[in-house]
Every structure is written in structure tokens, then in C-alpha cells.
């Protein structure tokens, strides 16, 4: 044998040792697989704390502080240019009158303008009679004491379409904030009573929800505006109040 040749001593382990090692490796593999799977499932997740949820409601009554009315003109003539000019002149007079009565320009809005052909029908034949021009303004009146005078003055200056008079609240934001504060106070008081009944302590609020709080519904006036009767505009004062309701949900962590 060459003196440079390596010599190895190999001892075969007993079968029992091989079997034990195989079982150990198998169990270790299963353990690691379960551990990794559990860590993967729990990645980015936290165990939710114990919580309770309570609701509260807040109501606020508001009185109307503005009136909104539609003031319009309908004119018809065989000459389209003439009827357009006539309508424009009346609308100009109306706009001037409204501004003289302290109605801001931003509170005067054109909501509709249309031109429609008009026909006569005779013996089954259609013949163009002329054109109808309609223009409508939506006017917001902030001084409720001037509503009647504004409507009468508009009619005197050629408006022949006045309607949809409503009384509403211009900016319900303050009332909504007040209703929200009442609702939160109501929910907090309920949470205090509930926690005492359950024998738990309230910690921090972990979730907040809110619903409701839409603007108050307008009050519609019923009035005889007296068109074609030579009468004035008896306008009823706004009656009643509107409710703004907000509901909140508070979720507390408890211990």
C-alpha cells in the first residue's frame, strides 16, 4: 500500500440509532412547519382587545332664517327676437328691483331658460304660431320681513310665474355641531353606566362612527299670490321648527 494513500476507519451505526435519528428529524420538520405556518398566519395581525360599543343621539331644533322663491317670466310672440328682447328687459328690471331691496347678487340665480315653438292645428295641419320664452330665477331672501314686498314688486315688474316659496336654514353647520356634541355626551354617559353594570373599566375609544346630520327640510308656504286678481301677496310667516338629528357610535376598549 502506498504510504500517501489515506486510510479511513468506517464504523456502521446500529439500526436502532439510525431509526431514532430518522424519527427525530421527521418530528423536527413537522414542528418547524407548524411554527412557520403559525407565524405566517399571524403576520401583521394583532389580537383585538375586549371592547364594548354604545350609541348616542343628539337632536337640535332650528328655526328657518331664509326664504327661497322662484320668480319667472313666460312670454310669447310671433317674432322670436322680439320675445327674447321683451323677456330680457323684464328680467333686467327684476334683477335691479331685487338688488334695490338688499338681495345680494349671489342670491339671485338663473335656474332655467328655454325657447319653445308654438303651433296652431287646423284641419289636421300644423302651423307655426310663434315662440314661447321662459326664464326662471331662484331668489334667496335673507330678510324674512321683506318676502311679501319682494313678491309684490316682482309681479308689478312683469313676473308672471312666482312659486315654490320655502323657508329654510341657510347654514345648519352650527346646529349640526351642537347635535353632535349632545350625541357624544349621551354615548359617554351610556358607556359609563354600562361599564359599571358589567363590572369593567373603560380605557380609550378605539372606533367612532356617525350618521344623520342632513340639512333640515324646508317649510313650504301655502299662499294665494293673487295673479290676475289685482291682489297682493299675503305671505304666511314660517311656522314650526326643523330637527337636525345625529347618531354616533363609540367603541371603547375595556379591561
TrEMBL record:
It comes from Candidatus Giovannonibacteria bacterium GW2011_GWB1_44_23. The chain crosses the membrane at residues 17-36. Pfam families: SIMPL (PF04402). InterPro entries: 26kDa_periplasmic_antigen, SIMPL/DUF541. GO terms for biological process: DNA damage response. This is 26 kDa periplasmic immunogenic protein. Keywords: Membrane, Transmembrane, Transmembrane helix. It comes from the Bacteria.
Amino acid at each position: 500500500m502506498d504510504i500517501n494513500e489515506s486510510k479511513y476507519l468506517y464504523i456502521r451505526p446500529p439500526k436502532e440509532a439510525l431509526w431514532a435519528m430518522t424519527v427525530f428529524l421527521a418530528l423536527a420538520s413537522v414542528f418547524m412547519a407548524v411554527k412557520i405556518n403559525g407565524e405566517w398566519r399571524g403576520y401583521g395581525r394583532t389580537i383585538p382587545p375586549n371592547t364594548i360599543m354604545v350609541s348616542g343621539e343628539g337632536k337640535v331644533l332650528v328655526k328657518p332664517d331664509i326664504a327661497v322663491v322662484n320668480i319667472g317670466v313666460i312670454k310669447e310672440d310671433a317674432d322670436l327676437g322680439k320675445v327674447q328682447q321683451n323677456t330680457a328687459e323684464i328680467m333686467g328690471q327684476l334683477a335691479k328691483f331685487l338688488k334695490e331691496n338688499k338681495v345680494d347678487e349671489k342670491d339671485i340665480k338663473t335656474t332655467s331658460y328655454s325657447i319653445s315653438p308654438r303651433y296652431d292645428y287646423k284641419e289636421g295641419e300644423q302651423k307655426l304660431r310663434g315662440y314661447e320664452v321662459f326664464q326662471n330665477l331662484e331668489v334667496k331672501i335673507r330678510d324674512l320681513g321683506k318676502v311679501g314686498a319682494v313678491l309684490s314688486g316682482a309681479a308689478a315688474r312683469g313676473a308672471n310665474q312666482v312659486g315654490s316659496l320655502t323657508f329654510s336654514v341657510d347654514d345648519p353647520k352650527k346646529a349640526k355641531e351642537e347635535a353632535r356634541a349632545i350625541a357624544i355626551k349621551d354615548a359617554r354617559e351610556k358607556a359609563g353606566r354600562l361599564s359599571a353594570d358589567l363590572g369593567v373599566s373603560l380605557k380609550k375609544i378605539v372606533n367612532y362612527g356617525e350618521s344623520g346630520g342632513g340639512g333640515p327640510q324646508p317649510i313650504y308656504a301655502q299662499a294665494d299670490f293673487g295673479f290676475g286678481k289685482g291682489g297682493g301677496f299675503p305671505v304666511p310667516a314660517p311656522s314650526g321648527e326643523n330637527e337636525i338629528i345625529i347618531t354616533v357610535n363609540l367603541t371603547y376598549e375595556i379591561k
